[in-house]
Write a structure and sequence with these properties.
Blueprint (H helix, E strand, L loop, with lengths): L1 E6 L2 E4 L4 E9 L6 E7 L6 E7 L5 E3 L7 E6 L4 E6 L8 E8 L13 E2 L3 E6 L1
Parallel strand pairs: 2-11
Antiparallel strand pairs: 1-3, 3-8, 4-5, 4-9, 5-6, 7-8, 9-10, 9-11
């Protein structure tokens, strides 16, 4: 089993920045993929970004491209989501997810392991 703990959410004004973290523990794999998703009230869980753990290949959802950056620190077994130029529409609970397979996965159904979620609120 893989355990994920995501953190770093909070309240920020529009135009501000936050960095989310996702710490992995338990049975971690040398080759796996990590993703970030978000879910606003009354909406479906939306893909935000993904990264391949080994090579660091990244992919972003259209709504965050150019503003958010996904990264990972392999030595710390921690993934990050740097969020800049935040907008009120970015308000949601953000979840990290992991899959023990190499690749970029944009569907939430691909990921068996999930963090508990961290709230991000952007005020106008």
């Amino acid at each position: 089993q893989v355990q994920l703990v995501d953190s770093g959410g909070g309240l920020v004004q529009a135009g501000g920045s936050l960095r989310l973290s996702c710490a992995a523990s338990g049975r971690t794999f040398s080759t796996y993929a990590m993703g970030w998703f978000r879910q606003a009230p009354g909406k479906e869980r939306e893909f935000v970004a993904a990264i391949t753990w080994s090579a660091g290949i990244t992919f972003y959802g259209d709504s965050v491209k150019g503003r958010f950056t996904i990264s990972r620190d392999k030595s710390k077994k921690t993934g990050y989501l740097q969020m800049n130029s935040l907008k009120p529409d970015d308000t949601a609970v953000y979840y990290c997810a992991a899959k023990d397979s190499v690749g970029i996965y944009r569907s939430r159904y691909e990921y068996p392991y999930w963090g508990q979620g961290t709230q991000v609120t952007v005020s106008s």
